[in-house]
Amino acid sequence: MAAKIILSMNDAVVQEYPLDKERITIGRKSHNAIVIDNLAVSGEHAAIVTILNDSFLEDLNSTNGLTVNGIATKKHFLQNNDVIEIGKYKLKYLNDQVSQITAADFEKTMILRAPAAKSAPKAELLEQTGKLHSSMLPPQAAPAAKSAPKAELLEQTGKLHSSMLPPQAAPAAAPVKSAVTPAGAAAPPAAALQSGIGMIQILTGPNAGKELELTKNLTTLGKAGTQVVVLTKRAQGYFITYVEGSSYPTLNARPLSDQPHQLKANDIIELAGIKMEFYIKN
Amino acid sequence: MKIDQALEITSLSHTGQVRSHNEDSVGYEALCGLVVLADGMGGYNAGEVASGMTVSVLSSEIKSALLSNVVSDEEDDSGEDMGVTLLRKNVKKANATIYHAAQSQPQYAGMGTTVVAALFYDNHVAVAHVGDSRMYRLRGDAFETITRDHSLLQDQIDSGLISVADARKSMNKNLVTRAVGIDVDVDVEVHVHAVQVGDIYLLCSDGLNDMVSDDDIGSALQMLQVNLTLAANQLIEMANDNGGRDNVSVILVKIKGDFAVSHSWLEKLSLWFKKVNDKWL
Questions:
Q1: What is the pLDDT of residue B265?
Q2: Most exposed: A225, A276, B100, B175, by fewest CB within 10 Å?
Q3: pLDDT-derived band of residue A173, with 50, 70 and 90 as boundaries?
Q4: Which tens digits make up the pLDDT trace of A84-95?
């Protein structure tokens, strides 16, 4: 399902516009795809360029400018639920395909390919990418895609869900690996620990009494070459794993193994002759 | 030092948290200093078939070429480095094998795979790749990508359309612009890099670098470099903890010692005579 723009004023929806073209313009004049007949709006105010599942907003040197989520901007990579404001008008960007993807869709890996892909000379491709840079050209100019004609070149394996196909059939030349990539996949969820931050308090030796906050995902403890453990912070809690050393450190007087052990409050670790206690600070 | 003593290699592959089967394949030949990782694509189980074929073609062909010592002559002909020739030739061979299987058997139609393969020899590493499987290097404090993805997103980054930071939010990930097995021929990118003792090389499928940031991968490797098995486990665990949306595979190679090829003066002389001989005959 293509992304869309919902135009509204004073919280009343004026119209919905699917982003089914590579480039649409927003402005006062009637040739724009999204016409806003208001004097505060420039004749050609802004453009939205859509490449497969990504959309980019660009201010076309408008007189009064625009904001995205309240911040003035010239160029912006649109994210689901972004609100563009032009004068009194609001344009909400919706790209909800992510929420429609079910686990089963992840199985459907597919390849889109074009036999003509090789014929595109390198220099020409470079030139095209150069243009992309300066003027945010429509998606057909995306590298490699231009060298191939349209749908007949699409070859696919497995079942291809119609919603997985990008609106413009632009990626004609690109083998597609699992076209459905959820947004936010990249953002590692913050380790959602149920309670507080893990702490290590050193009990014996010259540093007795010192404390260490386990804020990082990985913390190594010990002496390199002698005995080292790593403490990992995960959603489920903290884990301790032996890293190196001729003998295993102990946890509550029992030697650790190569496997990770989950730490509980008041566990006692003995490492290179030093005792330390793990606890949770709220 | 012999290559298998100079390198410590470990590999691990995991299905992830979402997919039902693993289309990645990993393999290595310690005696040849060869590591191969492929991330397959295509319906049903064709992805596994394509990635598996790539790993087995590269492993068996390069192993037999190196052990039978048939490569040196070809190297002279092309003027190319031996490792570059071996890798390029055999990725192309894998390409042809997959392409023909896909053409002749309907259930394999359209299958393909990415590949990243590294051949370590004479204190150097030759790296071949197609698609978005990567090789990284940890040298001292510096952790960096050695390969450049053949992907739409990388093209967009290169052209300045999208920033590296924004690229992480893109919904156009996994659009590769090159793949092994989908066409009659394939354009293989190969480079040679000098190797230093202490370097750690990471080959991975995008299931790792899409789920875990480069910074986190680098710091985990840095901390756990003394225990490669643990480091590999940790990387996969991090990808899975972050959602594990794709299969995730890693190969780690640590350079433990020098592995320069020693050319004695006698060998050099005989090589020279051989060349002169070839020229005049």
A1: 67
A2: A225
A3: very low
A4: 999 999 999 998
Residue B206 has which token pair? 């995008």
**Is B162's CB within 8 Å of A77's CB?**
yes
Set of chain A residues whose Cβ sits within 8 Å of the Cβ of B50: none
* Domain count of the fold of chain B: 1
Which residue in B172, B216, B219 is closest to A51 by CB distance?
Answer: B172
Q: Which two tokens stand for residue B182?
A: 């989908």
Whole-angstrom distance, CA of residue B147 vs CA of residue B190: 9
In a domain, B278, yes or no: no
Q: Which pTM does this prediction carry?
A: 0.75
pLDDT at A141: 36
Binary contact (B177, A175; C-beta < 8 A) = yes
User: Which helix (H) or strand (E) element contains residue A34?
Assistant: strand A34-35
Provide the domain limits for residue B110: 3-272
Using CB atoms, pick whichever of B114, B230, B238 lies closest to residue A241: B230
At A210-258, the pLDDT tens digits run: 999 998 889 999 888 889 999 999 888 999 999 998 888 999 999 998 8
Look at residue B84 and tell me if it is in a domain. yes
Is B104 inside a domain boundary? yes
Q: Is residue B89 part of a domain?
A: yes
B175 and A157 within 8 Å at the Cβ level: the answer is no
Partner residue opposite A217 with nearest CB, options B111, B177, B216: B216
**B269 sits in which H/E element:** helix B265-280
Q: What is the mean pLDDT of chain A?
A: 73
Identity at A131, one-letter amino acid code = K
Nearest to B171 among A108, A181, A216 (CB): A181
Compute how many other C-beta atoms are within 10 angstroms of the C-beta atom of residue A272: 15
For A183, what's the count of Cα atoms within 13 Å in the CB-facing half-sphere? 19
CB contact under 8 A, A174 and B159: no
Place of tokens 């590269």: B58
Would you say A212 and A232 are in contact if contact means Cβ atoms under 8 Å apart?
no
Name the DSSP letter for residue A189. P
Q: Which of A19, A54, A227 would best serve as a mutation to test chain B binding (most B beta carbons within 10 A)?
A: A54
Q: What is the ipTM of this complex?
A: 0.78
CA-based torsion, B36, B41, B47, B50: positive or negative: negative
CATH number at residue B163: 3.60.40.10
For residue A195, pLDDT beyond 80: no
How far is the alpha carbon of B223 from chain A, nearest alpha carbon, in Å? 7
Please report which confidence band the pLDDT of residue B133 belongs to, taking 50, 70 and 90 as the band edges. Answer: very high
pLDDT at A74: 93
CB contact under 8 A, A130 and B227: no
For residue A169, name the pLDDT band (cuts at 50, 70, 90): very low
Exposed/middle/buried for residue B187 (C-beta within 10 Å: 0-12, 13-18, 19+): middle
Range A189-194 average pLDDT: 45
